[in-house]
Amino acid sequence: MKLIINQSYCALPYIFDNAKVLRQRSTKAEQHLWKMIRNRQLMGFKFRRQHPLKYFIADFYCHEVLLVIELDGSIHEIENVKQYDQQRETIITELGITVMRFSNDAVFLEADKVIEKIEAHLMKCKSLLH
What we know:
Layout: H1 13-24, H2 28-37, E1 48-53, E2 56-62, E3 67-72, H3 79-94, E4 98-103, H4 104-109, H5 111-129
Parallel strand pairs: 3-4
Antiparallel strand pairs: 1-2, 2-3
């Protein structure tokens, strides 16, 4: 049985403060996806937005299945940002958390496919939970 530590993985207070600011400044893509996954709309799973995880803030997080969803705008195509994202993802996956990444464009242009991919992952996790 896996030991579950608190949902923020010991994030420091300033990370919580930054998360609050980010929630107030959500991108259009984050707002769009949030409308589809908030209030347990996605298979009954609870997602949190701009959730502190250790040293980072995840765009969306479902603690029940240890899933982070990250939305990437064009800035994430810059090489040093890609490297940072990879380092960040490595640390998050070492916590036992799965990271799914989607481009902002995918959220707007292929929202149904984004939701299908998330649901497929949730279905797999749900079968393991029961």
